[in-house]
Design a protein that fits this description.
Elements (H helix, E strand, L loop, with lengths): L1 H5 L4 E6 L1 H4 E2 L2 E2 L1 H16 L3 E6 L2 H6 L11 H25 L3 E7 L1 H5 L1 H16 L2 E7 L13 H11 L4 E6 L20 E2 L4 H7 L11 H12 L4 E6 L5 H6 L6 E3 L8 H9 L2 E7 L1 H8 L10 E6 L6 E5 L5 E6 L4 H7 L7 H5 L13 E3 L10
Parallel strand pairs: 1-4, 1-7, 4-6, 5-6, 7-9, 8-10, 11-13
Antiparallel strand pairs: 2-3, 9-10, 11-12, 13-14, 14-15
């Protein structure tokens, strides 16, 4: 079955967790080199590989005498500045020994929230792949602040998969895959080999535990799998510390947990709106506007807006919520917050008379909107 699932795969994103290539003593160069060897083997097989590698903070904190998780952002940034050079050097040495090149690509959320920078990042990664170079991607921890963080590299790997239109996301974790219980607490917990659909019940099984080295637990991996699934891409979670695990994957062995992609998928633009573009505000809408958007697939008009929160400009993303504040969609607004304060609740025909100009009748056009409520995935149709 795995051979059939992987038969179409050409472009692979491999996310390597901190718990795989790091320890309390710092960077595990032996483990990193072993994984890098497998990555080179995949390159030899004709696959395009993009690596999203964690571990910079863990690799650098020991040099500063920090034990445990760094407690402040400056500590983390200093550790990342040291550790990132160690990690990229380790990848470079292994790849060069096998006749391949790597390139370091550091991103912040702002790079993917801005459409022009998003496309520039995609063009850079695509060009590197065309030249046979393997990009090593990480969050730019040395300059990032909370407002522009991805949150964790599981999320980053999902965004990169969407960015480059990858065919498969492989998450190398420090566990064998996704279990129906916590194997550290329940010895009878069973590994789930194939997940057909990510349900709220399944998400609740993931919990939110985190290790001392990384920032994400199984919950963030499930969210990553859900996100790339909406792009029509499968996710495989395997134990990165298992010798030659990547070779086993592409030999068709039934290792880890494979998350099937959703049956319908979003367009590239809607994936960017849903997952990359950070919302700057919130629009509360009445029951009629909610039904029009969710049930009838209509655009949002000014007459349905009954509340506005946040400060945003035309072209920013905003959340769409019902009167109780429950989010049901995200979209790119055609009008700024000051403009909406003047036209909210009015008919579209009154926009020009109120503002003295009009961009369009719709506040959020349907093609610039994506539903975010459960079981409302949108397709290219």
């Amino acid at each position: 079955m795995r051979n059939a699932l992987l038969s179409h795969v050409k472009r692979v994103i491999v996310k390597i967790g901190s718990g795989v290539i790091s320890s309390e003593a710092g960077l595990d160069r032996t483990m990193l080199a072993a994984i890098a060897e497998d990555l080179c083997d995949l390159r030899q097989q004709g696959l395009e590989i993009i690596v999203v590698s964690s571990g910079a903070v863990a690799a650098g904190k020991c040099q500063l005498g920090i034990t445990g998780r760094p407690q402040t952002i400056p500590q983390k940034q200093a550790a990342a500045a040291i550790g990132q050079t160690r990690i990229i050097r380790a990848y470079k040495e292994t790849f060069i020994d096998r006749g391949h090149m790597v390139a370091q690509v550091l991103l912040t959320r702002d790079d993917l929230s801005n459409r022009r920078r998003y496309l520039n990042a995609r063009n850079t990664l695509s060009t590197l792949l065309e030249y046979g170079v393997t990009p090593i991607v990480n969050e730019n921890d040395t300059v990032v602040v909370e407002e522009i963080r991805f949150g964790d590299n599981d999320n980053l790997s999902a965004l990169v998969t969407s960015l480059v239109e990858g065919d498969l996301l492989i998450i190398l974790s420090d566990v064998d895959g996704f279990y129906d219980g916590d194997p550290s607490l329940n010895p009878d917990a069973k590994l789930i080999g194939v997940v057909e659909r990510i349900t709220p019940k399944l998400e609740s099984l993931a919990g939110d535990s985190k290790g001392t080295l990384g920032t994400g637990g199984m919950s963030t991996k499930i969210k990553a799998a859900k996100r790339v699934g909406l792009a029509g891409v499968g996710t495989l979670i395997v134990n990165g510390r298992t010798p030659h695990i990547l070779r086993k994957v592409f030999a068709g062995e039934n290792v880890g947990s494979y998350f099937l992609p959703a049956q319908s998928k979003m367009t590239a633009k809607k994936r960017w709106i849903a997952f990359s573009k950070k919302p700057r505000g919130k629009l509360l809408v009445d029951e009629g506007a909610y039904r029009a958007v969710v049930e009838l697939g209509k655009s949002l008009l000014p007459s349905g807006i009954c509340g506005i929160e946040g400060s945003f400009e035309r072209g920013d993303a905003v959340r769409l919520c019902d009167r109780q504040g429950n989010e049901f969609a995200k979209g790119v607004t055609s009008y700024s917050q000051p403009e909406l304060l003047r036209i909210a609740g009015k008919q579209s025909s009154a926009i020009e008379a109120t503002l003295g100009y009009k961009y369009r009748d719709e506040i959020i056009y349907r093609d610039d909107m994506v539903l975010t409520i459960e079981d409302k995935e949108e397709s290219d149709a």
